[in-house]
Amino acid sequence: MICKGHEVAGSVIDHETRCAHYHSVLDIIAIKFYCCNSYFPCFQCHEESGCGSPKVWPLERFDDKAILCGSCGHELTISEYLTSDYKCPACNAKFNPGCGLHKELYFEVSHAGRM
């Protein structure tokens, strides 16, 4: 599906990147997966796509744009997203803070569980 001018794969159910797995009012981001360079709304959508070798974003690539705001289409770097206070710096739309509970599925984290 095309969401805000970007192709977003997976079980996308609306133009703000919500999917069949996560579709609250705050579930409005898509994450570009490092392994396949494609946006998906969540890790479950990515798994369902059949990617056989999921990889997380390495720390040295946190300046890459890999987060899509489903509200305005702004692309955030990983660093911007992780320090965004769960809102888009371009349009102030609020993101789901619960996504931070499974950030290790997307991004390299230290042994202490922090970035």
Give structural notes.
By secondary structure, this protein is mostly beta strands. Helix content is 10%, strand content 17%. The chain is built from two helices and six strands; from the N terminus they run ββββαββα. It has a four-stranded antiparallel sheet with strand order 4-3-5-6. The longest helix is centred in the middle third of the chain and has 6 residues, at 43-48. The chain starts with a strand and ends in a 33-residue tail after the last helix. The model has no long low-confidence stretch (mean pLDDT 91).
What descriptive keywords fit this protein?
6 strands; 115 residues; 10% helix; globular; mainly beta
As for the number of domains, it is: 1
Helix content: under 10%
Order of helices and strands: EEEEHEEH
Large-scale geometry: globular
Main sheet strand line-up: 4-3-5-6
The averaged pLDDT comes out at: 91
Per DSSP E runs of 2 or more residues, the count of β-strands stands at: 6
**Which class best fits the helix and strand makeup?**
mainly beta
Q: Spans with pLDDT under 50 lasting ≥5 residues?
A: none
Largest sheet: 4 strands, antiparallel
Report Rg.
Answer: 13 Å
By DSSP (H or I, 4+ residues per run), the number of helices equals: 2
Compact summary:
The protein has helices at residues 43-48, 78-82; strands at residues 2-3, 6-7, 29-33, 38-40, 65-69, 75-77. By secondary structure, the protein is mostly beta strands.
